[in-house]
Amino acid sequence: MSQGRILLVDDNVDLVDNLGEILEDEGYKVLRATSAATARARAAEGFDVALVDLRLPDGDGTELAAELHRSAPGAEVVLLTGFASVESAAAAIRAGACAYLVKPCAVPELLLTVGQALRQVRLQAEREELTRRAQLAEKLATVGRLTAGLSHEIRNPLNAAALQLSVLERRIRKLPEEGQPSLLEPLVLVRDEIRRLDQTLQDFLLFSRPRELVRRPLPLDALLRKVADLMSGDAEARLVQLVVDVAPGTPAAAGDEGVLRQVLLNLILNALDVSPRGGRILLEGRPADDAVELIVSDEGPGIPSEVSNRLFEPFFTTKPNGTGLGLAIVHSLVDQHSGRVWVDRAGSGGAAFHIVLPRS
Ligand SMILES: Nc1ncnc2c1ncn2[C@@H]1O[C@H](COP(=O)(O)OP(=O)(O)OP(=O)(O)O)[C@@H](O)[C@H]1O
Ligand SMILES: [Mg+2]
Predict the structure, then answer these.
(1) Closest residue by CA, ligand 1 atom 13
(2) In the predicted model, is pLDDT for residue 1 greater than 60?
(3) Ligand 1 neighbourhood includes 326 CB (under 6 angstroms)
(4) What does the pLDDT look like over 81-107, one tens digit per residue?
(5) pLDDT the model gives residue 209
(6) What's the CA angle centered on 271, arms 268 and 274, to 5 degrees?
(7) Residue 97 burial by CB count (10 A; 0-12/13-18/19+): exposed, middle or buried?
(8) How far away, in angstroms, is 250 Cα from ligand 1 center?
(9) What domains lie within the chain, and their CATH numbers?
(10) Which strand (E) or helix (H) includes residue 296?
(11) Contact at 8 Å (CB) between 292 and 357?
């Protein structure tokens, strides 16, 4: 993330230019506006801190400040006033501003105030993210306890049924050859269905009772190629190309190979579901500070913002036959690795899932 986006609103063009330049020199991205109307339009581009003049040609700064505050609850507003007075301080507080500056303001004071406001914005964002994660963790734990018990109860009789099925198969194979196919055909179908059920239950169990990780150094290139290999049949069937691209010099991850394979498989399965015919799914690896990053991106429709904060919730699905567990499992397995997973828009316009893992 850049240093921060500052919306600067004042009808004095020179002042906007001057302050804008000072802020840009500090590395901030500055959005300039000389009226309330342009401020509203520019605010839609997203900002962290707004500096708003109290007196604007087409409206009252305090009203605009309150409006900006409502439309961007995570951002902060600082009011600019022509003179220091109890009234302007009171107006600033009423408008929900976190501070006010008296014009012409000294550069150090300006930068200090903007810096403090930005810190406030970031702390608030961190708090929200922590709360979101805590809520998700609690939900995952509840679902985990429930499914562990249930899966166990279902798996036992299922295994017994599978066993009887193999007894049946042996007996059929002892019958005269010509009678066998008509008996074996339904048997194979039932066996496949039982296998599928068992796999689903295994998914549930994996996520409710995560097994101990066996951490080894994992070169990303080998990991991604192996997974691409495993999925090549599915991809070919849908005319989708799996492309592995690992930046030279990327260190190995510290992780459990089987578990990380499952993580990647879930992401690729989702990507395949949305990929257009002839599309590409990119599996990337690259260094990230003192960690490594894996990115799975597709050329599908991407993820609308109202869906993106629910993706990792267990049972959240938009597919008629989805369980909504794929990404919940991904989240819990990455968490187990002390890693982080998030989604954003891919360069292709589709979805890009990022996973950061500790390096070995
Ligand atoms: N690459 C993607 N592009 C667009 N939407 C996605 C993508 N990956 C996941 N989603 C959305 O997130 C939802 C949840 O995904 P998740 O893998 O958890 O469950 P699912 O795929 O619906 O079901 P399951 O994985 O159990 O078959 C999906 O239903 C879909 O709406
Ligand atoms: Mg899925």
Answers:
(1) 317
(2) no
(3) yes
(4) 887 777 777 877 888 888 888 888 889
(5) 67
(6) 155
(7) buried
(8) 29
(9) 5-105 (3.40.50.2300), 129-208 (1.10.287), 216-358 (3.30.565.10)
(10) strand 291-297
(11) yes
